[in-house]
Design a protein that fits this description.
Largest sheet: 7 strands, parallel
Number of strands: 19
Shape: globular
Radius of gyration: 25 Å
Strand content: 15-25%
CATH class of the largest domain: Alpha Beta
Number of helices: 14
Length: about 450
């Protein structure tokens, strides 16, 4: 048996025990993990320094990008954010055992749809060391085992974080969290449909597409984040400039940063000079021919490759459109269905935009950078999904659960419901919940 398969089998065994643990045990372990991460922050920072030294050489060789280099950096402030994130996950409601609906099929025969863990989740991610702690804690809270494969550029940080989390998980079944380190381990993971229930890839467009094309295991994620802000003719110009600025500059190397700004022709002459002034010295603007006609200096000419491009850098494309419908058509054609925003004071225009844009998150008068599990109140996120099956958008605890059906009867048999004198199903909704306790699960009378 390979080492990877052995780890996957251990995770599978642990997930059954983990699913039955009371939420109090999982929450206590999360608080202990938070304490341990903070107590061992010096060791984490030292490990991260080793990664940064190695990454500098990788950057020089062209093996990683400057954006990846920035994402891998760990600081005391980031560790504090990680600790706060772990505690926020612990404070969330238990996602397991929730009754989604209940139905009386017949007298004394009651059906319940109840949330349950997915089982074993494999997450393959790059660059960001905080990703490991986010994913692990969300999986623990939702009762899932997790296999973690980080990028080589954060090898030492991931090892240290993994050790801290594993050792601090008091009362949690051994084997619930596993760390994989070799690149060749990924290929083996993709073939383990008998042990792994869900794969979450977090990385480049080509990387995610590779995962999606080489496994029969369900994949949750997005291949790229091409995000837009549309500045409508009824936008308040100052607000629009600040929304665009935050969407690009607050953190440009992430998937929810804006890549293209679409401007209604009626407002372009007022908006563009102010945008150019706000971005001056910080953001490179690449404009369409209509933009260049209105602003003679400070903007580069966009090429066809700039439309639909994810920059992950201080670069943004700007295009003038004739109306809202053209903006919507452009976004649905060139976007990646991740996050798109409209800035307007017209309610009707905003609602039309939000209903017509086919993206996981659609915003009104606010920065695209809000597309985040923590900011959505999900505690954190395991990733962002642009698909339309199971979970969509920032995926937190609910996206790591599925459901099962519980049917409780009093000796009911199907034979009574077939034939000439068959009993008739009532199929009557009932306001009852399936109550999960430490020892048993019973309907709440």
């Amino acid at each position: 048996m390979s080492e990877v398969r052995g780890k996957a089998e251990a995770a599978r065994k642990a997930c059954y025990a983990l699913a039955g643990l009371p939420v109090e045990v999982r929450d206590a372990a999360l608080h202990n993990i938070a304490d341990s991460i903070w107590d061992q922050r010096d060791a984490l920072l030292e490990a991260n320094k080793r990664d940064q030294v190695a990454a500098e050489a990788m950057l020089d060789r062209g093996e990683i990008t400057g954006a990846m280099m920035k994402r891998l950096e760990l600081t005391s402030d980031k560790i504090r954010e990680i600790v706060d994130m772990v505690r926020s996950v612990a404070s969330l409601d238990n996602p397991i055992g929730k009754t989604l609906y209940s139905l009386e099929l017949d007298e004394g025969l009651e059906l319940y749809r109840v949330t349950s863990p997915i089982g074993v989740v494999a997450v393959i991610f790059e660059s960001r060391p905080d990703a490991l702690s986010q994913i692990a804690c969300l999986c623990l809270k939702s009762g899932n085992s997790v296999l973690l494969k980080g990028g080589s550029e954060t090898r030492f940080t991931n090892q240290q974080l993994f050790t801290v989390i594993r050792d601090a998980g008091k009362g949690i079944p051994e084997g619930w969290i596993q760390l994989l380190e070799a690149r060749e381990d990924v290929k083996q993971l993709l073939e383990m449909s008998d042990l792994i229930d869900l794969i979450v890839p977090r990385g480049s467009n080509s990387f995610v597409k590779y995962i999606q094309s080489n496994t029969s295991i369900p994949v949750l994620g997005h291949s790229e984040g091409v995000c837009h802000v549309y500045v409508d003719k009824d936008a308040e110009v100052g607000m629009a400039v600040e929304v665009c600025y935050d969407s690009k500059v607050q953190y440009p190397s992430v998937c929810n940063a804006v890549d293209a700004i679409l401007v209604h022709d009626d407002i372009a002459s007022m908006f563009l000079p102010q945008l150019l002034e706000r971005f001056a010295g910080k953001v490179e603007i690449r404009g369409c021919s209509r933009v260049l006609e209105k602003v003679k200096e400070g903007i580069k000419s966009a090429t066809e490759e700039d439309w639909g491009k994810e920059y992950l850098d201080y670069i943004v494309a700007v295009r003038i459109v004739d109306d809202l419908d053209e903006a919507v058509e452009y976004i649905n054609s060139y976007g990646s269905h991740h996050t798109d925003a409209v800035v307007t004071s017209c309610d009707e225009a905003a609602l039309r935009f939000m209903g017509a844009v086919d993206s996981a998150s659609v915003f009104w008068n606010t920065s695209t950078r809000f597309a985040d599990g923590y900011r959505y109140g999900l505690g954190s996120e395991v990733g962002i999904s642009t698909g339309k099956i199971h979970a969509r958008g920032p995926t937190g605890l609910d996206g790591l659960t599925i459901y099962k059906y519980y049917l409780k009867g009093k000796g009911h048999v199907v034979a009574d419901y077939v034939g000439a004198e068959a009993k008739v199903f009532k199929h009557r909704p009932v306001n009852k919940k399936w109550v999960q306790t430490r020892t048993t699960s019973l309907p709440d009378d």
